[in-house]
Amino acid sequence: MQKLKIHFLNTIWSDAILLESDNHFAMVDTGSSFYYPMIKEYLDNLHIKKLDFIILTHFHSDHYGNLEKIISEYQVDSLYLKHYYGIEGSTGSGTKSDEEYVEGEILKYQAILLACQKTEINYLDELNSNETIIYLNNIPLELYDIKNRLFELYTNPDSEFYGQRRFSENFNSIGIFININNNYIFLGGDVTCSKTDILALKGLSLEMINQIYQKHQIDHIDIYKTCHHGGGGTNTPELCQLIKAKYAIITNTNRWLDNYDTFDNLKKAKSDVEILQTDYYQYIFEIDTTINYQKIYKESLFITLKKD
After folding, report:
1. Could you write out the DSSP letters of every residue in 135-149?
2. What is the rounded distance in angstroms from the CA atom of residue 16 to the CA atom of residue 3?
3. Average model confidence (pLDDT) for the chain?
4. Could you tell me which residues come within 8 angstroms of residue 308 by beta carbon, excluding any fewer than 6 positions away?
5. Is the pTM of the predicted complex or chain greater than 0.90?
6. CA atoms within 13 A on the CB side of 236
7. I need a labelling partner for 161 at 20 to 30 A (CA). Which of 115, 132, 216, 278 fits?
8. How far is it, in rounded angstroms, from Cα 91 to Cα 239?
9. What is the CATH number of the domain that holds 59?
């Protein structure tokens, strides 16, 4: 019988997720750089020496921040990420990008690939289908939306945004679906549900979930790592009604969610949803035929360091 543990580490406005199955380990995103002491302590307490792979959902520093350090200090077999072109119009903080920001991000991307080459890590940054399956100890992880939407708009002469740096790398975020004995998991990265009129960028999270439902003939998600840290404009009523989550993990704190309708949308979609935030707890989900979780009290470094 397949068994999987998912460790949601206590990050805010940042994702660091550890997957575990029969002494095989992998990560989805690596958190902002200031979280590294916590992440390293967590991995070392589990006596982890090797990661089968790391999936980077998109190239924002709150997701890639510790990638180079982890590659340098642990054995990592493979890295999966989208090629970074430096053509976004906004930063990871949501402000307008400039030449200095883009040049810095390109240098960080190149440093990550160089670290992979030095340690002979197999990395794939040009995935060539819209859906890819990666296995952790025979458990399939389905990667959705691996094409680079910003690059397509930037390089298409027929696009009104041809040659223009616009939008956010969130539009390039990968979504991950896992099915463990008919328990359904969706790790939403920073996938957007933007109301933009630009067809290539419209309702990406809705599109992914509908693709998953059609493929697997299902109608709900049991464990939902909320898109974009539970942010507003993404976890819309329409998306929450579609997902009908039993458990919703929000990598954020109330301080940043008070002005959003995320909680109401999740509860209206499923009144008994359990909403779990990572500001004061780490969560370990154990999934086989059933779903169980434990929470471990640990104040997020975001709060300890009084980050704005």
Report:
1. EETTEEEEEE--S-H
2. 20
3. 93
4. none
5. yes
6. 13
7. 132
8. 25
9. 3.60.15.10
**DSSP notation for 178-222:** EEETTEEEEE-TT------S-GGGSSHHHHHHHHHHHHHT----S
Tokens of 237: 């009523």
The token duo for 7 is 């460790």
What pLDDT is attached to residue 232? Answer: 75
Closest CA to 112 of 36, 43, 54: 54
Instruction: Give the distance, in angstroms, between the CA of residue 236 and the centroid of all CA atoms in the same chain.
Output: 18
Pairing of the two strands 175-180 and 139-144 = antiparallel
192-203 mean pLDDT: 81
- Hunting for tokens 């990406």 — which residue is that? 204
Residues pairing with 19 in the sheet: 6, 26
- Residue pair 28/176 in contact (Cβ under 8 Å)? The answer is yes
Number of domains composing the chain: 1
Nearest by Cα to 300 from 244, 251, 265, 248? 251
Residue 86 gets the label, from left (phi > 0), alpha (psi -120 to 50) or beta, of left
Length of the chain: 308
Q: Which domain holds residue 283?
A: 4-304
Give buried/exposed letters for 217-249 (b at 16+ CB in 10 A, else e). Answer: eeeebbbbbbbbbbbeebbbeebbebbebbbbb
